[in-house]
Structure to design on (255 residues):
């Protein structure tokens, strides 16, 4: 049912770490995504979760994002999401998470 | 649409995480046969995940069964869940703040039920006798 979870990161010149996740953020993968996010936030002041390659998002993924957002704020760091589309975008919008996380349409808006 | 462990179209599963993927895949296969688009299948999967995992996680203290039935009626794909666990109306669990935007300190639970209510055309709950015992019976409809 699901493709392999792929996670990649790259650093922009302005300090943002763009963390791309491909596949799904669901019950099965949310913990793995959270752990990777925890590691990235620990070493970066500004983290953007690039969801342009995410095809499915459930409340397990939302919980992971809420936890990462809290973690970042505790350390006075920034955490946001970029590039969500389709069903994941609808889930973020309907849950209000797009506003809370200051969601952006694309990585270009970080520059 | 069901074709195994059936009582009038109901499929029976152990309320255990080891049964979740089989349950989900059975429902999605039914939905494909009913003609749901890929986009609708994603929405349906969200509903299956949120409700089935909720039942598996909280309905029973010492294990039990959950029953699932699918049907297509009047342009809607209908999905029903039944369990014999403690009475629980998931529709009462909506954690979304009234202003529509969660706060930073928002509790992490409650989003699943809220999303199901948002994305499905209708969701209803009854506590009634089914399969010989008082049951939680949740019915969800998604337009095809």
């Amino acid at each position: 049912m699901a493709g392999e979870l792929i996670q990649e990161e790259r650093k922009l010149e302005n300090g943002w770490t763009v963390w791309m996740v491909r596949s799904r953020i669901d019950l099965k993968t949310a913990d793995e995504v959270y752990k990777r996010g925890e590691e990235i936030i620990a070493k970066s002041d500004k983290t953007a979760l690039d969801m342009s390659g995410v095809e499915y998002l459930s409340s397990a993924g939302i919980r992971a994002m809420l936890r990462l957002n809290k973690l970042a704020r505790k350390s006075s760091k920034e955490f946001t999401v970029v590039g969500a589309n389709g069903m994941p975008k609808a889930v973020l919008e309907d849950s209000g998470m797009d506003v809370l996380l200051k969601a952006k349409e694309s990585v270009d808006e970080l520059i | 649409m069901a074709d195994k462990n059936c009582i009038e179209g109901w499929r029976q599963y152990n309320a255990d995480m080891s049964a979740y993927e089989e349950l989900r895949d059975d429902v999605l296969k039914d939905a494909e046969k009913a003609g749901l688009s890929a986009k609708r299948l994603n929405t349906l999967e969200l509903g299956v995940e949120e409700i089935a995992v909720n039942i598996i996680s909280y309905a029973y203290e010492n294990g039990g069964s959950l029953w699932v039935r699918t049907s297509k009626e009047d342009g809607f794909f209908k999905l029903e869940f039944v369990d014999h666990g403690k009475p629980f109306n998931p529709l009462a669990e909506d954690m979304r703040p009234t202003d529509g935007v969660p706060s930073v300190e928002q509790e992490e639970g409650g989003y699943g039920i809220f999303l199901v209510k948002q994305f499905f055309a209708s969701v209803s709950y009854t506590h009634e006798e089914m399969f010989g015992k008082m049951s939680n019976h949740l019915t969800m409809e998604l337009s095809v």
